[in-house]
Structure formats: C-alpha cells, structure tokens
Specification:
alpha+beta, globular, 4 helices
Amino acid sequence: MSILIRKSEEKDSDKIWHLMKELAVFEKYINSFAITPEIVRDSGFKKANPDFYCIVAEDGDKIAGMLVYYFLPYTAQNRPAIYMKELFVDENYRGQKIGEQLMNALKREAQTNNCKQIKWTVAPWNEAGIKFYERLGAEENKDWLNYEWNI
C-alpha cells in the first residue's frame, strides 16, 4: 500500500463527502448533517475563493483520509492562522500514521502561508483524538471557552 498525501481536486468531491458523512456518524451529528456531494463540489472547488480547502490521503482509487481546513486571515499577531475543521481517516486505514501525515501536510501548508497557528476543536469524549494531538505536540488552549449562538 502506497498512500499519497495531496491537495484535493474537484474529482474527489464524492469521496470527500463520503468521509464527511462517516465523520458525522462518528461524532454523533448525523441527524443534522446537511452536506451533499454537490455542496462539497460547489463550496470547495467551484468558487473563486473556496469556503474550505482539503488535503487527502489517496490509496489508488480510494480516499483513505481527509483533512478539511480554512484560513483565518486576521489575527492579533497580524499573521493568518489555519482552522482545521475536520480530520478523518477511514477505519480500514487507521493505525497507519495517515492522520499524522495529513497533519504534517497541514503544518507545511501553514508554514507556506506564513500562518502563526493551526487551531481546532476536539470533542472531550474523543480520548483517542486527544491523545493523537498531544502526541504530535499540540496543547489544549484553556484560555478561551467555546460558545455557540444558534439562530
């Protein structure tokens, strides 16, 4: 097996959507999941300024994992940041360091774009995810609380 880590392309839209749907099941929000393959295609690939970017782990004709992110252009440090929205590896590919490869690709993307930080959230019940991020050297930011305003 030879995994290729690369930026996604429009042709990947259906496979990215499939992994997004699997993530929604894993994170228990499938009942509110409203993304379609067309939304992935239109929002990520057809817009001049896409709503998101994606890095994929490709295994032949399969997408084994994905990392979805977007840029935060304005920060107090006067440098952009990256917000990682989704990281998911198909369960058949877990334990092969694909998540780490995707995170390292995101780190290179951040460095290329002069970003100061990569930010994300993780569910408190996702102990494996927390251990994974800590193993990479990430630290929990306890300075801020997350809030939502559902409208």
